Amino acid sequence: MNFLFWLSTLLTVVSVNGDLSQPRPLALASSFTHIYHQLDNIHLGNCSLANATMPLNATKSPLPAPSANLTLKYVALGRGTQNYTCPSNSSSNRRSIIKPEATGAVATLFDASCLAAASGSLLHEVPPLISTTPLGSLAFMAALVAQGTRSTNLIIGEHYFNGDGDPLFDLTLSGSKSWIATNKKAAVPAPNSTSGSSNDVPWLKLGYKKGHGIEVYRVVTSLGNPPSTCAGQNATILVPYAAEYWFYG
Predict the structure, then answer these.
(1) Distance between CA 111 and CA 181 in Å, rounded?
(2) What are 236's strand-pairing partners?
(3) So which residues are the signal peptide here (predicted)?
(4) Close Cβ partners of 2 (under 8 Å, ≥ 6 residues apart)
């Protein structure tokens, strides 16, 4: 892979979105350079997940461990938005004390199983990078993950909320028949070190509700939390976020 090509692609993504201020482009380029060189030195085998381990101890109160009878099936990187609403007919004084209401999330899921198998520490560096990369740059994100996964099925699925308000994970884009509707079993605050801020959505353990699969973990989150109040906000708020999703079945 030609590094200068991908570096120019990254900087083009930034300029297209109108953000040429320092130090944003250089910070992105520096992060990309670091990850690129580490990925280039990884020699991947059959991507066995037998030794891949979630960083559950990174939070002050760890999430419950996966059930004893389950094994790790997939690891994915999710990039999308956490979605919120604010009342549109409230006075400005009222909006200053109303908190945005969560209405779900949508995300594209990228195959990261081989990267998790090869280098967990490197995998954990990716969410803070892609959470601030514009959604229109999916090609760049796929290329970044491809360097680690050596996979042709880079986008393996999508995450969204169904009509009943359940978090749903659909992995059929990868050719798998796996999909799962989940419900929340446990949540813990994200460690501030994840992206250097307190704006990261909580880490979650999601249990099986229906479909194919049993448990899903959302960990190593970056961004996604809403503004503290609805003051000055639109009726619909879309907050960028990224996270790792670990699937056990």
Answers:
(1) 19
(2) 85
(3) 1-18
(4) none
Q: How much is the average pLDDT of 98-102?
A: 95
**Could you tell me if residue 224 is inside a domain?**
yes
| 204 falls within a domain | yes
What are the CA-CA distances from residue 137 to residues 108, 117, 211 (Å)?
12, 25, 31
**Domain ranges, residue 229:** 49-248
Alpha carbons 169 and 61: distance in angstroms, whole number: 26
Position 2 pLDDT exceeds 60: no
pLDDT tens digits along 199-219: 999 999 999 888 766 799 999
Does the pLDDT of residue 11 top 90, yes or no?
no
Domain count, the chain: 1
The answer on pLDDT for 6 being more than 70 is no
Tell me if 30 is assigned to some domain.
no
Query: Dihedral angle at the C-alpha atoms of 35, 36, 37, 41, nearest 10 degrees?
Result: 100
Q: Please report whether residue 202 resides in a domain.
A: yes
C-alpha–C-alpha distance, residues 223 and 225, integer Å: 6
Q: Within the chain, what is the greatest distance between any pair of CA atoms?
A: 60
Q: Report the Cα 246 to chain-centroid distance in Å.
A: 11
Is the predicted pLDDT of residue 48 greater than 90, yes or no?
A: no
Spatial distance between the Cα atoms of 43 and 118, rounded to a whole number of angstroms: 8
Q: Which residues have a Cβ under 8 Å from the Cβ of 34 and sit 6 or more positions away?
A: 125
Quote the strand ranges of the chain, DSSP E.
72-85, 101-111, 155-161, 167-170, 179-188, 203-211, 215-223, 236-248
Lowest-pLDDT range of 106-120, 143-157, 171-185, 203-217: 143-157
